[in-house]
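Hello,

I think I submitted the S-adenosylmethionine job twice by accident. Can you confirm which output corresponds to this input? Input:
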Amino acid sequence: MKLIIDTAARTLTTADGASERTQPLYSKEAWEAISLQWVRVGWSLGAYYNFSWFGRPILQLPEDLVRLQEVVYSLQPDVIVETGVYRGGSMMFHASLCQALGKGRVIGIDQRIPPADREAIERHPWLHASRSSKAIPSPPKSWIEWRRSSGRARPCW
Ligand SMILES: C[S@@+](CC[C@H](N)C(=O)[O-])C[C@H]1O[C@@H](n2cnc3c(N)ncnc32)[C@H](O)[C@@H]1O
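Support: Only one job matched these inputs. Its output is below.
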């Protein structure tokens, strides 16, 4: 498929085999077609490796973080369970939303967190404050038992 952006004519032409369609560049349809390619190119380049949240690397695209914030704000959850902590940025992200909302806690689970990252996560003032105010408690006992029996994941908080 070809996408031809003509900024002078303000059109987007989508050519797919024999079919061709031209639509206004500044339209919802054009925005969606261009956005889809933007996301695909960004993911294939690993663009999500370029961001951090409160000092921790976060493997997310900024647009997704805004959407996640909208979900958390609208649901106002008591608990957010994050499967896949990696270097801690997204856990920090969710913890900061809980802090701002004044409610909620985050339980992060990962099978492997590099020791230096784990140390940095545990030292981080946001999480330290959350932990001391019991906003981020230890994982439920049943989870630890599940982990032991399945051997698949390691609760880290
Ligand atoms: C893409 S990274 C997470 C990125 C993080 N959420 C962020 O936004 O910065 C995926 C993580 O999932 C973890 N993971 C993958 N499979 C898992 C499993 N079965 N149990 C626990 N953790 C798992 C990996 O160890 C890795 O750290």
